[in-house]
């Protein structure tokens, strides 16, 4: 288990750009959690949650696995496209990006029926989000977002963003997309207007998460000095940075803490969202990639195995 030797979190209050303080701390041991693991398909990578069940993209099996969130029981597998990665839930259906197939698969969450597979002209599709009406997909090589009509898969709009669009979320008002090749994140209205592009403060921004007020971004997915940085959602002002090891990928928010995967060390790292304090490390399976919070537990996709890990707080 690695030691996170330095936690650096500088944050601005009041006057824009004014640094109030910084802190450093030694990582305490992992906290009161149970860690369970469950079998899925080959190379699990990302998650979606339909309110009762966890869906896992099994990139190496070209399939999705459905697990009951309460106990991890397998509820079946669904064959999708070539190399499924990012997932989204629209309230009724699961949407899956097929990274090598340049396609999007729509699956009924209730019974796993494949309703449609839409071919679209994104050379390397990545992140996906649902804005309440449309499905959005990040097009990595096209440096754009694709606004997809969920009924027929047609492209309603193309929105140019930064270089290497990858991670994508919808915070309830805006879409946020990481542009990994130029170290920025773009903030986009649902009508396609880009209202801001901001430096993330780190190299190779990848996945991200938001609570509507703050956006947290994982930087350093190419084995640079990995960090999680935070931006104020209203105006993109840089708020702080936490070092999380040599390599980081997934990120989740549980209402008070940020969780980030450290694939090289088979860890999920947790720290306080408010100030980056009290980091903890939780040992999981091989090469954890995506991470997700279902309202009770944290799930990590162990890309280097055919399993996922479930991290649940122990009640006092």
Overall pLDDT: 88
First-to-last CA distance: 26 Å
**What is the strand arrangement across the widest sheet?**
1-28-27-26
Spans where pLDDT lies below 50 across 5 or more residues: 1-30
What summary fits the major beta sheet? 4 strands, antiparallel
Q: How many helical elements?
A: 0
Give the overall silhouette: globular
Please trace the helix and strand order, writing H or E for each element: EEEEEEEEEEEEEEEEEEEEEEEEEEEE
**Approximately what portion of the residues adopt beta-strand conformation?**
over 45%
Number of strands: 28
Residues in helices, as a percent range: under 10%
Q: By helix and strand content, what is the structural category?
A: mainly beta
Rg (CA only): 18 Å
